[in-house]
Design brief:
This protein has 586 residues and is α+β, with helices and mostly antiparallel strands. The chain is 35% helix and 27% strand. Strands 25-32-27-28-29-30-31-26 form an 8-stranded antiparallel beta sheet, with no helix packed on it. Strands 3-18-5-14-15 form a 5-stranded antiparallel beta sheet, with no helix packed on it. A hairpin with a 2-residue loop joins β16 and β17. α2 runs antiparallel to α6 and α2 runs antiparallel to α10. The protein is flat and about 140 Å long.
Length: 586
């Protein structure tokens, strides 16, 4: 009996355990804690994997930070790109129309004007003598719910348009007739409405959907329109007493030139300029007393202001990121979220920003013009706060836009100055270095026969330009492909120069592109390299985990066999002890 009791005691400490590899075994048969032994051995193997996890976390945090930096820098570039000379939608080319008048108060109540980038700058005098109006006629009063009692059909439409036939039955009410007309208004251009004139009567009102168009009717059978009092006995001529409004065109005078339109929205009065008329300005042109409104087509200052505000917002978001990654506490070190503290890439970005913010040009008084102003020069209303974030003084910015828009444009856009009016550079090559270039042409006295260009970054031998009449351009094989030079003097062999001075916006786009370019930008390549490192470490980590799982299976098999042998030996020992002590007791 004692042997059974002893075996029971051993087995009660055992348990079925499933390892991380999925293997199941019985632990504790021998009294040994094999589970703890296996776990400790596997954990020792996994330490390398845990170190790799820590390394991957650091790399991932860095990659995420670089990605955020890339996004913030791209946002700054996007905000300012339309202020660069390389933009195909330059903010400085946008146009707006401004209304003023000494004849009428609140010109916007009389008309509005819009201008596209194709509009020429200038001031135009506009007088609205007559608005365009739709044609309106009405019927005599009809009992609201009674059948009209007319049968037949008539055609209706507008002058120069499509006429549709309307069929009338004797049981139709005035409301039924209006519905029948409106069912075809999309093709006729005529709509019908009902006006209640007293408790029991309504009038049918016919109107054209477009101004300047007249209603045209023709009786096909019956005399419905005559009976309703719309036409005057012939189904086509409207009853004079029931004509509410005669169709007419709008008449405006632009700088004394008469412009007539069937619509109150007049497009391309001048190239890129359109008007919408709301009210007549008063007087007549023939009478010499037509009131006028001055329409000034100028640069859209609100567009330029919006771009500056967008740039400031995007720049400050980038500065917030830089500030976060500069946090440091003496005796403690960099803050936990300062992932790029002391990072060389971030230092490079800060260097680019510092260089950009010192950009300046010389104004007409020979003084420096910067974002922040210099001496008596007020700049454009920007300043720096204690964190080097940009702050806008809106009053100063508004004044600068009104008084210095040309200077602001010259500051943001790249400028090309030529030594002669005979030379113009309408198109530059992308990424063309700033500096002074020399154009040397050879002429046979009638036309240019050859041309060379010398300048920054070019070989001493220069670049041969292709000659096409008075146009010189860099060949496709050249690094300056895209450069076009208009050379008006084709008769003389001579040398001229032109100087390229990069603007603030172009410098920023170029400087940031070094980091954000999707193909070879520093940030793009850095993020890609980090991704490769993470993948490489993940591969190693996966191998360690796989090897640890295999190792666990090996240990499980080993300890299972060991437990079994120990348990078997223990059973034999108990048997012998039981047998031995049994003899003694007897």
């Amino acid at each position: 009996m004692s042997s059974v009791s002893s075996l029971s005691s051993v087995s009660s400490t055992s348990s079925v355990v499933t390892g991380s590899s999925g293997s199941t075994y019985v632990s504790g048969l021998s009294g040994l804690d094999t589970t703890a032994l296996i776990k400790a051995a596997v954990e020792a193997k996994m330490q390398k994997a845990y170190r790799l996890d820590d390394q991957m976390k650091v790399l991932t945090n860095k990659s995420d930070a670089y990605t955020q930096l890339n996004t913030l820098m791209t946002s700054v570039s996007t905000a300012i790109k339309d202020m660069a000379s390389s933009s195909t939608t330059s903010s400085f080319d946008s146009r707006a129309a401004y209304l003023t008048s000494s004849d009428v108060s609140t010109p916007a109540n009389f008309m509005s004007a819009t201008a596209t980038s194709s509009a020429s700058l200038g001031i135009y005098s506009v007088g609205v003598e007559q608005l365009a109006k739709s044609h309106k006629v009405q019927s005599d009063g009809q009992t609201s719910s009674a059948a009209l009692g007319y049968a037949g059909s008539f055609k209706i439409g507008v002058s120069g348009g499509t006429q549709e036939e309307i069929t009338v039955s004797a049981t139709m009410t005035i409301s039924d007739l209006a519905s029948a007309i409106n069912a075809k208004s999309s093709s006729t251009g005529v709509v019908a409405t009902l006006v209640k004139v007293d408790d029991t009567h309504q009038r049918l009102v016919l109107s054209t959907t477009e101004t300047g168009k007249s209603i045209v009717t023709t009786d096909v059978s019956g005399n419905t329109l005559d009976g309703l009092g719309i036409t005057n006995g012939d189904g086509t001529t409207f009853k004079a007493a029931n004509v509410l409004q005669t169709a007419q065109n709008a008449i405006v005078y632009v700088d004394g030139i008469k412009v007539e339109s069937s619509s109150n929205t007049i497009s391309n009065v001048m190239p890129g300029v359109s008007f919408t008329l709301y009210s007549e300005t008063g007087g007549t042109f023939a009478g010499g007393n037509l009131n006028t409104i001055n329409v000034e087509v100028g640069q859209d200052l609100s567009q330029v202001k919006g771009d500056i505000e967008d740039f400031v917002e995007a720049y400050n978001a980038l500065r917030d990121f830089i500030i976060t990654n500069q946090q440091f506490t003496a005796g403690i070190g960099a803050a936990e979220d300062a992932v790029l503290f002391g990072d060389s890439v971030l230092k490079g970005v800060k260097g680019v920003l510092s260089s950009l913010l010192t950009h300046s040009i010389i104004d007409e008084d020979g003084k420096k013009f910067t974002l922040f102003g210099n001496g008596t020069n007020g700049g454009i209303g920007l300043s720096m706060d204690e964190n080097n974030k940009l702050v806008i003084d809106e009053t100063t910015l508004n004044e600068a836009l009104l008084q210095k828009i040309d200077l602001i444009q010259n500051f943001f856009e790249t400028q090309v100055d030529t030594s002669s009016t005979d030379v113009r550079v309408p198109y530059r090559a992308e990424g063309m270095a700033q500096g002074t270039y020399t154009v040397s042409v050879v002429s046979n006295g009638t036309s240019i026969t050859s041309a060379k260009l010398f300048g920054p970054g070019l070989d001493a031998a220069g670049v041969d330009l292709t000659v096409n009449g008075s146009t010189l351009y860099a060949p496709k094989s050249s690094s300056l492909y895209g450069l076009y030079i208009a050379y008006d003097d084709t008769k003389n062999t001579e040398t001229n120069t032109f100087t390229i001075t990069n603007g603030f916006a172009d410098n920023l786009l170029s400087g940031f592109d070094t980091y954000t370019n999707a193909s070879d930008g520093i940030l793009t390549e850095t993020i890609s390299n980090l991704s490769d490192q993470i993948d490489e470490k993940q591969e190693k980590r996966d191998k360690v985990a796989t090897d640890s799982t295999k190792y666990e299976s090996t240990l499980i098999n080993y300890y299972a066999r060991l437990e079994k042998k120990i348990a078997e030996a223990d059973v034999k020992l108990q048997y012998l002890e039981a047998l031995f002590f049994s003899d003694d007791d007897s």
